[in-house]
Amino acid sequence: MMDTLKCPQCSSEHVYEDGGLWICPECAHEWNPAEASAEAAAQGVKDANGNPLADGDTVTVIKDLKVKGSSLVVKGGTKVKGIRLVEATDGHNISCKIDGIGAMNLKSEFVKKA
């Protein structure tokens, strides 16, 4: 897992551990990954406008999104009811069902709270 660790400030992959801290030689940023992940969890999931999202919210898709592995497209303006927030390993932190498409995951940066 530590092979994929990147600097949270400049996204450099050239980071190294010194004691309990990680250091980026490119921008000199120092951080503790455990504290950084706790801070991110405390901030919660936010939509494209910075509004906090919660389980059961209704959101609107803000742009056309291609469905991977299919010719379907989720059109901008589509309302999605009853979202569920999930742990985002690949950036897709919203689990939902969209009429006409089915169950899928969305990134919170492509939705706004309705």
UniProtKB/TrEMBL annotation:
Question: What does the record list as coiled-coil region(s)?
Answer: none
Please report a single Pfam family linked to this protein. Answer: Zn_Ribbon_YjdM
Domain (Protein YjdM C-terminal): give its ranges: 45-114
InterPro entries the UniProt entry points to: YjdM (IPR004624), YjdM_C (IPR013988), YjdM_N (IPR013987)
* Superkingdom per UniProt: Bacteria
Q: Which SUPFAM superfamilies match?
A: Prokaryotic SH3-related domain, Zinc beta-ribbon
Q: Where is the Protein YjdM N-terminal domain?
A: 6-32
- PANTHER family referenced in this protein's UniProt entry, alphabetically: PROTEIN YJDM, PROTEIN YJDM-RELATED
Record's family? Belongs to the YjdM family.
Put simply, this protein is called: PhnA protein
Query: Which organism does this record belong to?
Result: Elstera litoralis
